[in-house]
Design brief:
The complex is a heterodimer of chains A (575) and B (597). Chain A has 575 residues and is of the alpha/beta class. Chain A has 4 domains: 1-137 and 297-315, ABC transporter type 1, transmembrane domain (ABC transporter transmembrane region fold); 153-266; 318-411 and 494-575, Rossmann fold; 419-490, 3-Layer(aba) Sandwich (Rossmann fold). Chain A has helices at 5-9, 12-30, 32-44, 49-98, 101-105, 109-130, 133-151, 157-200, 202-207, 211-236, 239-263, 269-310, 320-325, 375-380, 405-410, 426-430, 439-448, 452-455, 475-487, 505-518, 531-535, 554-560, 562-572, and strands at 334-341, 352-359, 364-368, 390-395, 398-399, 412-415, 424-425, 465-466, 493-497, 523-527, 539-544, 547-552. In chain A, the strands form 3 sheets. Chain A has a 6-stranded mixed sheet. A 4-stranded antiparallel sheet of chain A has the order 2-1-4-5, with no helix packed on it. Chain A has a two-stranded antiparallel sheet with strand order 7-8. In chain A, a hairpin with a 2-residue loop joins strand 4 (390-395) and strand 5 (398-399). In chain A, helix 22 (554-560) packs across helix 23 (562-572). The two termini of chain A are 67 Å apart. Chain B is of the alpha/beta class and 597 residues long. Chain B has a domain at 1-180 and 311-343: ABC transporter transmembrane region fold. Chain B is 63% helix and 10% strand. Chain B contains 19 helices and 12 strands. Chain B has helices at residues 25-36, 40-72, 77-126, 129-134, 137-179, 181-228, 230-235, 239-293, 297-309, 311-338, 399-405, 429-434, 450-455, 463-473, 476-481, 499-512, 529-543, 578-584, 587-596, and strands spanning 360-367, 376-383, 388-393, 414-419, 422-423, 436-439, 448-449, 489-490, 517-521, 547-551, 563-568, 571-576. The N and C termini of chain B lie far apart (91 Å). The chains are: A alpha/beta (575), B alpha/beta (597). At the A-B interface, helix 3, helix 4, helix 6, helix 8 and helix 9 of A face helix 2, helix 3, helix 5, helix 6 and helix 7 of B.
């Protein structure tokens, strides 16, 4: 919760004024029934017209003050709650921008998005609520009890009985209902899972003609959900009638005891009337309070999810020395020195084991190996997306940790396996590679990536809007745009992580040939399954289970490495 | 007195902040009613109990008048006892009615919502593939979750509360008029004022909500995009730019949301305050009337009770109105799907299919996903029983599209497709699909055991059949090494298995189906070549003696095909065996050498 403090501080004026205004509102509101009883008992009782008008006028003035206080309260609590939510959102967004890859791996994107949107909204609602209801309900309760006791302490005993009775019955209902709600949620998740599975598996369902089978399966989970929903909601809807009953019995009790007191002369009709109003007020406030607390406990989960992000320690940051030195990547020589790596410090086995590798500036290296050989892991250590567990990665003979992250990554481009384009025009997307790029540079990069030809077939060419509101490009086209984006600045080091898998081989060959003329000085790493791409590399690194088990040209490896032979033959099959 | 107990402005009601309006509210309500009215009997009972409940409430408050006038003031204790017993009885009846009507409503609501859910699911099952290919899955999911939830909440509570509030309001008004028409005039001055304020605020806040919604959409969209692409953001050092961009959107949202929040938040308290003014005026005028015109004290007491209760139903109605709107908008989206056109039903003369030999023929087939945009032109293919036909070509050449036509996922525009000489449009769709099995590149599984997942191919398959199929597909050995073997439960789409293992399960599933025709669509393209070799063996076993269509990225897997078809831009440009095609030195030669030079 300490993490929230700076955000609150920005809106402290609103946070102090809002509750103060609630107090004024409650004070004006709560004396009304008492004043009314005086109109009846004093005014009507003594036939004092002047008194009635005076008291009525006072009631009116107080109500108008209450309106002003209320509007003020809503004004300040809107500002405070919405403003606070905005600051939290900003804080979360900033934090995520600082996250390292291993920080990101701990959360799914969907979960991060939910935290920034839904969870923040829920917290906003709760703060809005706290600044009014959470203060108003207990105050109302307290004031009403005080006034009721001051009117007639004996009759107030009815309240002393009613409050615990209502409190206990609410507790029983909620306590019983809660497990039902949890079960209902689980069954709801099951129903959703069936729907989700059917959506991704629609071709399977249809091709095996399993529509009726799925309907029956859904019918069962749906029925299970309904049974539990009836139980759970059935408990909650009991709250109102039970509340009604407690309140009505209290009123009857007051009519009886109060009536007797009036008959014996120790009580007055107006007081009886106001007493009934106060007990209604008290029990309502009690219910309001418990409802508010219930919403609060739901919002707690949201707040915990938000804090989890704010409290995450970012594990890759610029060291003070790196900032001081401010080195730039120049040539692009890459060296792995005794590098071992595991994703989680507690993991038993290393994903990469004792890697030693020197790649000279301008060299093209292909990295191959089976799925799970840690090829992507290896290259992700170069731009410091992860930090080595042991050993060192050096660029131009300087440890990558001695560069600042922007300096390191600006001249080193990695085309990820799971790549993303953003909504906006193709040109805007390409400019990610270099915000200052001219149109000529953009077109030249697109031509090198074999993207120019298809881009100009779109009616709007480079101004074509991508993403949800625009057109969708095919997988191969997307990959080519991603490559163009990465080579826009002609980086010193370029890493292509299986980034042409959806591009056909002929096009890929053309991309390679334009690289060899336009990206001559660039050190290039290529991860691929395709033999043709492998063979054009200066050197092939064969990775197996996190270790380098072979290195050399195609012919050398074909002679020396049995694993390479196996891979080669698996692609050639019978030849 | 107890009508006052409805929890007006329950904290944190979802409908309050973001309200979306249905486009055609009346039509949606009518359709919802058609669902609800299946339980007309229960609904009548609910209505009866509701009226009973409200009557006891209003009557209870009214009895305050005779109690004060006729028993307390005249000091009639036995009479007071009688009245107290009467009150207790009335409230007792009210409580029983209240409990039952709420529980009944839940049963009715949940039954209705489960029927709607089942209908929606059935509808989805009946929709053609085109629907799923052109609709976002997230959006479809949200209709099942958010929209159905909104309707469910509304059926659970909103309808009942709206009815209660409206009837109570009318009842209170009638009784006020009965007790003192003169005093009712005071209320008649305040109520229009309340309605005016409510209308003004609602009108104002509508505009603010629209602008807030737009700002929210922009901010949420940006968040989602930047988080999904976060790794790219880092690789391109775009963090600072993203923060600046987001800050603009975020503060814009804050300013718009503050206004919207202010207007939506202010309504309930102000209406409540106006009601207090009403109370103050009523008390004053009532007091004056008591002195000047001999208005009875009991009547004043009852009247004041009513006037205090007046604001709550007004607030309640405006609050529930919002959730009802959200529910109707949700229901509208649900009904939109229900109105989608299902797969065309089988023609009456459609034949059943048995003992399929597996002869497949495409005769000059032309097809486009959208009218006017042809994707395939004059495709002719002949596959004799047991033959292996390969489809190769660049991405987007139309390979998958051809294979979407055979099981009639899409219907062709011209030409003909036949199986064993019968045009597929004359075959009952279920029979048609049952005679073929498809193995796709995406290896999705269902929650359930390994055994259940394989048996999905043929539900009648015995455990032995399933195991035999797994052995044939080469999946048996890894399955036996799973913690519980064939009874291992797969969750989250088989997340605990490797992609290769999931693919082997898919092949076993196709094997157990014993199809006459097999379609393998890039079944191994995202798997490394060594794993592929293992899977390949399973697939070769599976293809034995069946007509198979293979779409492959890696040409090594198709060179033993009986015929290879090379596709480009929706047309077959080359056809023949591997050797013939190589000799041709055309596109196939180029593709092949691109991979194996």
């Amino acid at each position: 919760m300490k993490k929230y403090f700076p955000f609150f501080l920005l809106y402290k004026k609103a946070l102090i004024l809002a509750p103060l205004l609630v107090i004024i509102d409650v004070a004006c509101e709560i004396v009304q029934p008492d004043l009314m009883s005086k109109i009846v008992d004093v005014g009507v009782g003594h036939k004092n017209l002047h008194y009635i008008l005076q008291t009525g006028g006072l009631m009116l003035v107080l109500s108008i003050i209450a309106i002003a206080a209320n509007v003020g309260n809503i004004y300040y609590s809107s500002h405070a709650s919405v403003g606070f939510a905005a600051e939290v959102r900003k804080g979360l967004f900033k934090k995520i921008q600082e996250f390292s890859f291993s920080n990101l791996d701990k959360f799914s994107s969907a979960s991060l998005t939910t935290r920034l949107t839904n969870d923040v909204n829920i917290v906003q609602e709760v703060i809005m609520m706290s600044l009014r209801l959470l203060i108003r309900a207990p105050l109302m309760l307290l004031f009403a009890v005080v006034i009721a006791v001051s009117i007639n302490a004996q009759l107030a005993l009815v309240i002393a009985v009613a409050i615990p009775v209502l409190g206990i019955s609410m507790y029983i209902i909620l306590h019983q209902g809660f497990p039902y709600f949890e079960q209902m949620q689980r069954r709801l998740d099951k129903v959703n899972a069936v729907v989700q599975e059917n959506l991704v598996n629609v071709r399977v369902v249809k091709s095996f003609v399993r529509e009726d089978f799925e309907k029956k399966k859904f019918g069962r989970t749906n029925d299970e959900l309904r049974e539990m929903a009836v139980k759970a909601s059935g408990m909650v809807v009991m709250i109102l009638p039970v509340m009604q009953l407690v309140m009505n019995i209290s009123i009857v009790a007051i009519v009886w005891f109060g009536g007797n007191a009036i008959i014996s002369g120790s009580f007055q009709v107006g007081q009886l009337m106001s007493f009934i109003t106060y007990i209604t007020q008290i029990l309502m406030s009690l219910m309001m309070l418990s409802m508010t607390i219930m919403t609060f406990s739901r919002a707690r989960a949201s707040s915990d999810r938000i804090l989890e992000i704010l409290n995450t320690t970012v594990d890759i940051v610029d060291s003070p020395e790196a900032k001081e030195k401010d080195l730039l990547v120049q040539k692009g020589k890459v060296e792995f020195k005794n590098v071992s790596f595991k994703y989680h410090p507690d993991a038993e086995a290393y994903v990469l084991k004792d890697i030693n590798l020197v790649v000279n500036a301008g060299e093209t290296v292909a990295i191959i190996g089976a799925t799970g050989a840690a090829k992507s892991t290896l290259v992700q250590l170069i731009p410091r997306l992860y930090d080595v567990s042991k050993g060192q990665v050096l660029i131009d003979d300087v440890d990558v940790r001695d560069y600042t992250l922007p300096n390191l990554r600006n001249n080193l481009k990695l085309v990820l396996q799971q790549n993303e384009l953003f909504s906006g025009t193709i040109k805007q997307n390409l400019k990610w590679g270099n915000p200052q790029a001219t149109d000529e540079e953009i077109i030249s990069a697109a031509k090198d990536a074999q993207a120019h030809d298809f881009i100009i077939t779109f009616p709007k060419g480079y101004e074509t809007v991508l993403g949800q509101s625009g057109i969708n490009v095919s997988g191969g086209q997307k990959q080519r745009i991603c490559i163009a984006r990465a080579i826009l600045r002609k980086p010193a080091i370029l890493i292509l992580d299986d980034s042409t898998s959806a591009v056909d081989t002929a096009t890929e060959a053309r991309i390679r040939s334009s690289f060899s003329t336009h990206l001559k000085g660039t050190t290039t790493f290529i991860i691929t399954q395709r033999l043709s791409s492998i063979k054009s590399a200066d050197r092939i690194i064969l990775l197996d289970d996190g270790a380098i088990i072979g290195s050399g040209s195609h012919d050398e490896l074909l002679k020396s490495s049995p694993v390479y032979q196996e891979i080669y033959h698996s692609q050639q099959l019978v030849s | 007195m107890k009508a006052a107990i409805q929890p007006a402005g329950l904290p944190g009601r979802r409908g309050h902040i973001f309200v979306e309006k249905p486009k055609n509210a009346w039509q949606v309500m009518l359709r919802l009613w058609r669902y609800l009215s299946r339980q007309r009997g229960a609904l009548f009972l609910i209505l009866f109990l509701l009226l009973l409940n409200i009557t006891t409430t209003l009557l209870g408050s009214y009895l305050l008048r005779p109690i004060i006038n006729n028993f307390i003031i005249p000091r009639d204790i036995p009479g007071l006892i009688r009245m107290v017993v009467l009150l207790l009885t009335i409230y007792g009846i009210g409580a029983v009615a209240g409990i039952w009507l709420n529980r009944l409503m839940i049963v009715v609501a949940q039954k209705t919502i489960s029927v709607i859910r089942a209908d929606l699911f059935s509808k989805l099952q009946s929709l053609p593939l085109k629907f799923f290919d052109t609709h976002n899955h997230g959006d479809l999911m949200s209709r099942f979750t958010n929209d159905v939830d909104n309707v469910s909440d509304s059926l659970n509570t909103s309808i009942l509360q709206l009815l209660t509030s409206t009837i109570t309001l009318l009842g209170i008004f009638a009784l006020m008029l009965y007790i003192s028409p003169l005093l009712t005039l005071v209320t008649l001055v305040i109520v229009p004022l309340m309605l005016l304020v409510a209308a003004k605020i609602i009108g104002k806040s509508k505009g603010f909500f629209t602008t807030q919604q737009a700002a929210l959409g922009a901010a949420d969209g940006y968040i989602e995009e930047m988080i999904t692409g976060q790794k790219v953001v880092k690789v391109f050092c775009y963090e600072a730019m993203a923060e600046t961009e987001f800050e603009k959107l975020n503060y814009d949202l804050r300013d718009k949301a503050t206004q919207a929040q202010l207007y939506s938040g202010v309504m309930q308290p102000v209406i409540q305050n106006l009601n207090t003014i009403n109370f103050a005026l009523t008390a004053t005028v009532g007091g004056l009337l008591a002195i000047l015109r001999g208005f009875d004290l009991g009547g004043l007491a009852a009247f004041l009770q009513y006037s205090r209760q007046f604001g709550r139903p007004v607030n309640e109605i405006s609050g529930q109105y919002n959730s009802l709107q959200a529910a109707l908008a949700g229901a509208e989206r649900i009904f939109q799907i229900m109105d989608e056109v299902p797969e065309t039903s089988d023609a009456p003369e459609a034949v059943t299919l048995a003992n399929v030999k597996g002869e497949v023929e495409f005769k000059a087939v032309t097809f486009g996903y959208d009218a006017g945009k042809t994707v395939l032109r004059h495709i002719s293919i002949t596959a004799k029983p047991g033959q292996k036909i390969a489809l190769v070509g660049s991405t987007g050449a139309g390979k998958t599209t051809i294979m979407n036509l055979l099981p009639r996922f899409y219907d062709i525009q011209a030409g003909q497709i036949t199986i064993d000489g019968i045009a597929i449009k004359h075959i009952q769709r279920a029979d048609l699909r049952r005679c073929m099995a498809i193995v796709l590149q995406d290896t999705h599984l269902f929650t359930g055991t390994v055994l259940e997942n394989i048996r999905y191919g043929r539900l009648e398959a015995t455990d032995q059949d399933v195991i035999a199929a797994a052995v044939l597909a080469g999946a048996d050995s890894f399955i036996r090494r799973l913690p519980k073997g064939y009874d291992t439960v797969l969750q989250n789409d088989g997340g605990n298995l490797s992609q290769g293992q999931r693919q082997l399960l898919n092949i076993a599933r196709a094997t157990v189906a014993k199809p006459a025709i097999l379609i393998l669509d890039e079944a191994t393209s995202s798997i490394d070549t060594r794993t592929e070799l293992i899977i390949q063996q399973g697939m070769d076993q599976l293809m034995k003696g069946r007509t198979s269509f293979v779409i492959a990225h890696r040409l090594s897997t198709v060179r033993n095909a009986d015929e290879i078809l090379v596709l480009e831009n929706g047309e077959i440009i080359e056809r023949g065996s591997h050797e013939t095609l190589l000799k041709l030195q055309g596109k196939y030669f180029e593709l092949y050498n691109g991979q194996f030079d």
